[in-house]
Amino acid sequence: MDRFVNLTLSGVTSGMVFATVGLALVLIWRATRIVNFAQGAMLMVTTFLAWTVIEHGGSYWLALAVALAAGLVLGAVVERVVIRPVENKPPLNAVIVTLGLFVLLQAGAGMIWGGRPHSYPPAFTIKGFTVAGTQLQLSPFDVFVICAVGVVMVALTLLFRRTDVGLKLRAAAFAPEVSRLLGVRVGRMLTLGWALAALVGSLAGVLIAPSVFVGPSQFDPILVFGFTAAVIGGLDSPAGAVVGGLLLGCALSYVSGYISSDIVTLGAFAVLIAVLMIRPNGLFATAAGRRV
Amino acid sequence: MLEVTDLVVTYGAVTALDRVSIKVAGGGITAMLGANGAGKTTFLRAVSGLVRPRSGLITVDGRDITRRAAEEIARLGVAHVPENGGVILELTVAENLRLGGLWRGRGGAAARRRIDGVYELFPPLRDRRGRLAATLSGGERQMLALGRALVAGPRLLLVDEPSLGLAPRVVAQLMAVLRRLRDEHGLTVVLVEQNARSALSIADRAVVLNLGTVVADLDKAEAVDDRLRHAYLGF
User: Which terminus of chain B is more exposed, N or C, with fewer CB under 10 A?
Assistant: First the structure.
């Protein structure tokens, strides 16, 4: 029983990070119908920036702020410079462009920071809480991870549901042409959408960095898991990405705890295939067939 | 108000509009009639900036809008209600309405007053304000589309086939609203219709398009004159 609780706890923690990456992918997919394969590389770059701040004696919190701000800027720049020319073009163009960006960022990071992974400090101790003599797989840092992701999710929900900008963002994503007729500057909304998504991604990068280390290709599995989380949820639903991330986190944790940590990736595929067999459009897909 | 001079719009090798010139004075309803493919929808899309004209000049109140972006044209007070209304199904009725007035800035009270005005114009919308637009009937969607355009307080309203697929009673209701907006608020309306009979019931003028050119421009008296109407419109 202890073991199950511990595996669940660590599954929830990593699931929250997967959910965050999934959320970044969903935000972009909803707004532009593009799967951002460069998401992993983008959060790798912002995490490297945060690591550089810490290397130069900056505090954890300053580094986190730098990563988030860099994510915001990077997302906006990527949309304006790289994505804008392929919007409204065949979907394959965008796929190739984001893959190219992935390669470019990874190679660039290797040139600047080298290929060797570096350690990244956690905000709080990663020594688990002790309850009634047994040590839990839940540390103060894990609690921080869960809270940070929770705060971001609540903030995003409020932004989308309660503010004028959120209404414009949703309208621009659902019906760009009609939105333009209503005076919504759709181009700006797309830039903002990418910026927000990259911000969310950069948070995930900093949160996962202590366990995967910081290196040009250290975050590749995170993108795969985040993508799986998003697909489980239906790729179109932010709530779905969160549930997908938690499901995946727990599944992977059970696989590595009860079977073997060598086949964790296999576990991700098993979850993905199981969900897609039962609900091909994802768990949270709304009745398909929009377009009037 | 709206002045279109020698407008040419092409889709690839197809010429959709061929040197169309129309002047619309302020404060009236201009019906734009014609068969399928006559170029009526293209005309509206060119005015509101959704398609780029190949040549020609479009001005609103003397201001050249020919190559402006659609969102900037909307911000000049040109509201375009596209075919089928274009309500955003994933948003609630209230959100659709709020969206219509957002470009005017955060004028909270003024926007709320205009939204209340829309609810008065179309009472069914008030009862369904919290529901997703996807749950509305065809007639209610058209009301929402029209109401959403009005929230911004436009000076020129372009409406594309509001009667499409609606029951005659609902169409009459919509036409009555357009007439009221003209009479009480001096709104200028360009009404594209295939349903010539209902459009002519409220129009001050009728422009007939055929294969991308203006073939008739009738004032109200002519439009209701049986012989002329029969010659141009075939009924």
Answer: C
